[in-house]
Amino acid sequence: MALAVSLGEVMRSAFRTLRRRLLPAATAMALAVLPAVAAISVGPEVGKPLQAAGEALSKKRYDQALKEVEKAAAVKAIKPDEKWAVEQMRAAIFKAQGKFNLAANAFEAATKLVPLSAADQAGALETLSQLWYRHGDFAKSAAYGEKALAAGRQSEAFRQMLAEAYYRSDNPAKASKLAQALVNEARAAGRKPNAEVLQLLAASEFGTGNVDGYIKTLRQQLATQSTHDNWQRLFDAMEKQKPIPDRLDMDWVRLKLAADAYENPDSYTEAAQRAIVEGLPGEAVSILDKGWQAGLLGQPGPKQERQERLRAYAREQVEAQRKELDEQQRQAIAAKDTNTLAKLGMARAMLGQLDQGINLLQQSLRGKPRLPARTRLWLGILYYKAGQSKLAEQTLAAIPADSDEARLAGLWVLLAQGKR
After folding, report:
1. Residue 192 lies in a domain
2. What is the mean pLDDT of residues 150-172?
């Protein structure tokens, strides 16, 4: 009958795309709607007020729409099929108002009024999960979502929402398991994992206390989202996982600077002071210049004079080092002092003499320095600075995988890939 057809269109229109966000940049998904029952029959006593409700809904006259729904529901001889149409319309109105809990209650009531196939029942469970998610009752969303999943609802968007519901209902273990499955499926299909799913996976791993898993996921995130926040999270996690040894303090500082992870003036001045102590005044000047360019140093205030003194001192040390380097290098070569050669190589590189720095580090490695892993790390960094990415990766890959230097080397590779 014509009335039944128009009511069906009202239902479909009312439940078209419902947009939601799982995480700050999550994708949109459509809200499912109960399928129309093939043999539904709506009499005029119920159909006319429902038709009026649909028209009011289309004009966003929600109070009037609900009044018409109540008229339809009050019909004494109302049949189950007609009750189904009433509850569907009620749910559509509540959903349009943003009253997702009331929409869910009405929607669930509708599911109990007519026989549904297994597939339709699964779709209804997914819809209920979405509605409770929108309401903010993540525990209920997860409960209905689990049932929908078991019933065969497997779309990526739905499972992403369910994983988020798990996470928001304080069940990071289940969230992690589902998010990891989505990541694995994407890789198996030759696709990059969804950035929002990786973000959820990282948060879930953190929530379960799985630091190794958290770091692994953060590194995966950085492969596609080389952002300041992601780098900062990774640095923080790595420091908590295992402290960086003293011998690599400057290397850790250098890496964080390259990733723009420093946000305050003291970080820059402390890094510059460390570089001077390590015999790298050229690097100290570069660090301070970067702080000035970022607007973090040299600003009027109680620390300005100290910062300017440090900058002037670093520049003085650069000039002094330039005068001494040739003689120091001659002595190191004569003494076959591979450790000093490595340090002089870094000093020259930080003074802008990149080719000479690389050459000295290569000589040092041929002579078997005391810290070969650190020397390879330095050489890999200089290759990157020289634009020789392939050589850099080969050099860093030769560092023993179980060393602390290898932890840093992998991040240099990741950082370089993110800047390509």
Report:
1. no
2. 96
